[in-house]
Amino acid sequence: MSPDESTAVDRTPSDRADVCVVGAGPAGALVAHRLASRGYAVVVLEAGPRFEFESRDERMERAIRPGHDERSVWDMGGERDRFTSSGSWFYPLNHARVKGVGGSTLHWQGMVMRHHESDFERRTRDGVAADWPIDYGDLQSYYADAESELGVAGASDNPFAPPREEPYPLPAFEPSYSDSLFAEACERLGVTMHSVPNARNSEGYDGRSPCVGYGTCKPVCPSGAKYSADVHVEKAEAEGARVIDRAPVQRLVTGDSGERVDAAVYATPDGTEHRQEAREFVLACGGIETPRLLLLSESSDHPDGLANSSGAVGRYFMEHLFAGAGGVLDRRTRQNHVGFLTSECHQFYENPGQPTSGTESGIPGRDADLGPIKLEFLNYAGPSPVEMALDATEWGDDLLGQLQGAYGNHVAMGGLVGQLPRKENRITLDASTTDDHGNPVPEIQWSVDARTKRTIERANEIQRAILTELGVEDVSVIGPDATGPAYHHMGTTRMGTDPAGSVVNPQLRTHDVTNLSIASSSVFVTSGAMNPTLTIAALALKCADHVAERL
């Protein structure tokens, strides 16, 4: 959208709003749609732009052609997206986030697992961290609703998964060819493979096409078969909701008593500030921007930031860490033919140190304090032929021969492990650096503890054993000292029943402000090792129901 077109859009406040939602990613979109469909007047304020669907082909080209920074695919970077990282580990925030209608689901991988029952009970089961104030049963029906809304393709073949009462909306994708190579080795070792629930259409669903195999799922799906939250933004608008893009909220303003939010103050591209008033407010702007906005909204009634009497706003920041291993086989693996995962393993989730019951070449046990491990069988391992050609020094037939000899026989495994919540891992404000509106940027203080490192090492042990059994020689690993985050921002406005130690209650409403709710992974109490988006979606639907109860 050009500057002239952006100024032609009406971004003035609505005269009447029952609910103001901040953020148009998956949580905000689902909240807006559910409330608008029940007849409530909803306004959504989104900091980023609308991305025309027709631009996806061009964005796909940006993703696969040389010369483009990965952040350019969805127009990230510049003053608007400044941040600082001051922890012992650098946190590359802009590497994998999107500001705009649809949020980070515009470039996500699309894997959607339910949390295990144990994820809600870490203190009770393992004596670490804290229990959630809700359990799996409280979210079970919301998980089912979320799967239906997103259009999840899956199968009930995971013996380690939590209970479910209904089938997935769509059939699971068939395992990839490289999964079939892993299957024999895993069977010999006693390792159980099963399907991955995916928020992408295995057949036509909800007016969107089935997956057509572009293979560029991350960072862009040109066909729309992979779910992105702009789907529910459009549904919300069809139900009467109003969505204002390029309207970053600067602060939330409370009334005389400080107990209720009166308005969200937002800026527009021409530099004007507006006040959107509403009866209820829902923050749905992720695990970084949500605490940042609360801290920016300090006042005489809330001197440490809005809803922060506990001091927990911004604290307990958690991530998932990646563990990987790979190598080369003496046969073709059809690498990069599928752009997403089709098989995984939750066998080491509840008891990550347990050995398998396979052969003598099997996986050894580990007697150590470890967290849950989710293993993934990658079918997009190794370099692409384009990357190899660009780095080559040969030309013509020599280059072709090199590509034919070196491409197509890579195989790899991935895995996620989670961090425990620690107060020192936190989001604060850096007043020495400002954004395009003069606001302090988020400062990320992040480090990785010894327990998480031990768990990554354990994941590498299991991966190495499987790859060795498969016949991979010279297995290389991505381990605890050379890994990075999965860009799952969790824990910075944690849920709890005690206002002295948490930010929101089990209904997702802040303890301190009676008309302010938070729908985000920021309310997670512990991280587990599951991709968080399905739990975000379930919590968003739960949040919307509680907001409706108060209206």
Automatic annotation (TrEMBL):
It holds the Pfam family GMC_oxred_C. Its cofactor is FAD. GO terms for molecular function: oxidoreductase activity. Keywords: FAD, Flavoprotein, Oxidoreductase. Residues 201-231 form the 4Fe-4S ferredoxin-type domain. The keyword Flavoprotein applies. Belongs to the GMC oxidoreductase family. This is GMC family oxidoreductase. It comes from Halorientalis brevis.
